[in-house]
Each structure stands twice: as structure tokens, then as C-alpha cells.
Design brief:
single chain, 276 residues, alpha/beta, 2 domains, six-stranded mixed sheet, two-stranded antiparallel sheet, 10 helices, globular, F-box-like_dom_sf, F-box domain-containing protein
Length: 276
């Protein structure tokens, strides 16, 4: 029976648990099947072992496809996270927003997506980098969460991302890097940067060598408000993400009540007055 179950895709395997108690017990008690379903951590023998994203979660939460895996072959020549062309994380096409019924299903405490690992082998160390650079200087901060003993689960990552999107000023760029295991000879900074700017970008470079996952934010410097001919401030229309976040407000509020957050703690900050 186990050999048959091992040949099933993730969706079929998940739904097979509803067939009968015997099948459900077999799937729950099989270490390898639980690993295949991203419920249980697979072995992690070293930093060189490739990580694979959860394919089922990527279909339901498409923003997972935007994560930049610095250890993948296509990124083999990628050496400077700060010089990466940042693509703001998009919440477009979330499955849970397709209907009120879907949303209710996703918000059930026992919903399977909540405890699924985002990657195999799992992500254990979580960091956050925030930076701001412009003509008049730059500043940055680095934070980390307690190690995720059993690996980073999807409900924690989703809540983290949505919380930061709610909290970000307009114009902030966000990228999420799957790091660690990069060569120690990573060169910091990028062409045209000052020495101090290199310190900031170097901080992010080091983080992606030290953490399994890093969420990085580049904040814009505050600009001047724009007014029309009547002296009224001109407000830009809501972005797609801002519209989706309004739809997620109830979901976020409910998760705030029920979920233990990552509780990031700042461990390093920097500031300089040298612009670029």
C-alpha cells in the first residue's frame, strides 16, 4: 500500500487521507510520506544541499515564485543581493481570496497549508534587512528571529510577508532571498557606490550567507507632497497590492489573534551621511 501512496502527487496524497482511517494512519505515520507532503523536515546534511520550494504552496500563494534562490543554478553568477533588480512581492492571484468560502477554508485552524514547510530541506534561520540610501546618506538595520526548530512553516511566512507589506511606506521595494551556502568571497557593494554605501550592501551580502531566508526592504527617502491648482494634495490611486491588502485585512487581524509571530529582534544598525 505504501508503494502506491508514494507514487501519488501531493494533492492526491493529501485527499487520500479522507478515503478511510487506515489510509490516513498510513500517511500520518510514514516519515517519508510526511516529508513528501512538506509536513516533516527532510535531512539537511550541509549548506550545499539544494533546497526545493513546496510546489503545492507555490500554486496557492504565487508570490513564493518570486523568492530569489541564490543557490540555484540560474543564479550561480549572482553575487550582490543589493545590486539585484528588485521585484516587489506581489499578492496577486492568492487562492484564499477567490471566494468567501475559500477564505473560510484557509482560515480553519486545522487547515493543512498552515503547518506545511515552505521548502525541503527546511529553512531554519530567518533574517530581515531594511535599508535606505540616497543623496544625503544611508541607514540600515538587521534583525533575526529565533531559530525555527522544525523549519519555517507557511503560516508564519505568510503572516510575516503580509505584516511587512501593511507596514511599508509607498515606494518601498521588497525582495526575499533564499541564501546560505554562498561562496565566502562574495564581493560587497556595486559599481558607483561609495565606501559607506558598500558597508550597507555588504551587510545584506553577509546576511544571505548567514541565514536561510532573508526578507530585504529598500525604503524610499521621503519626497515632497504634490498639490493641484486648488492647493489640494494629490493622492496617487491605490496600487494592486494595496487593494489586495484591504481584502486581506480581516485575514491578517484573525491571524494576529491566533498565530505566534516570528518576533524579529534587531541585532545591528548602521548610519552614514555620505550620499551617492
Amino acid at each position: 500500500m505504501l508503494s502506491i501512496l508514494h507514487q501519488m502527487d501531493m494533492v492526491t496524497l493529501l485527499t487520500s487521507q479522507r478515503v478511510c482511517h487506515m489510509w490516513a494512519d498510513l500517511i500520518r505515520e510514514s516519515k517519508t510520506l510526511q516529508q513528501d507532503l512538506y509536513f516533516s523536515p527532510s535531512s539537511h546534511e550541509g549548506n550545499d544541499e539544494p533546497r526545493y520550494g513546496n510546489p503545492l504552496l507555490a500554486k496557492k500563494f504565487p508570490f513564493l515564485k518570486q523568492l530569489v534562490n541564490l543557490n540555484n543554478d540560474q543564479n550561480a553568477g549572482f553575487r550582490r543581493p543589493w545590486g539585484h533588480k528588485w521585484e516587489d512581492i506581489s499578492l496577486r492571484n492568492l487562492d484564499l481570496l477567490r471566494s468567501p468560502t475559500k477564505q473560510d477554508q484557509y482560515m480553519r485552524p486545522e487547515a493543512s497549508w498552515r503547518r506545511m514547510l515552505t521548502h525541503q530541506p527546511p529553512l531554519y534561520t530567518v533574517g530581515s534587512f531594511s535599508g535606505q540610501a540616497g543623496r544625503f546618506g544611508s541607514n540600515w538595520s538587521q534583525s533575526k528571529a529565533a531559530e525555527q526548530t522544525n523549519g519555517l512553516q507557511m503560516e508564519a511566512l505568510f503572516y510575516w510577508v503580509v505584516s511587512l507589506l501593511f507596514d511599508k511606506p509607498r515606494g518601498t521595494d521588497i525582495s526575499i532571498f533564499i541564501g546560505k551556502g554562498l561562496s565566502a568571497d562574495v564581493k560587497h557593494g556595486y559599481a558607483g557606490a561609495t565606501g559607506r554605501r558598500c558597508q550597507m550592501s555588504g551587510g545584506l551580502d553577509r546576511m544571505v550567507r548567514e541565514f536561510d531566508i532573508v526578507l530585504a526592504r529598500e525604503f524610499p527617502f521621503s519626497g515632497c507632497a504634490v498639490y493641484d491648482s486648488d492647493g489640494e494634495e494629490v493622492h496617487e490611486p491605490l496600487t494592486e497590492n494595496e487593494i489586495i491588502l484591504e481584502q486581506l485585512r480581516g485575514v491578517h487581524r484573525e491571524m494576529t489573534r491566533t498565530l505566534h509571530s516570528l518576533d524579529l529582534e534587531t541585532y545591528n544598525e548602521g548610519w552614514d551621511h555620505d550620499g551617492y
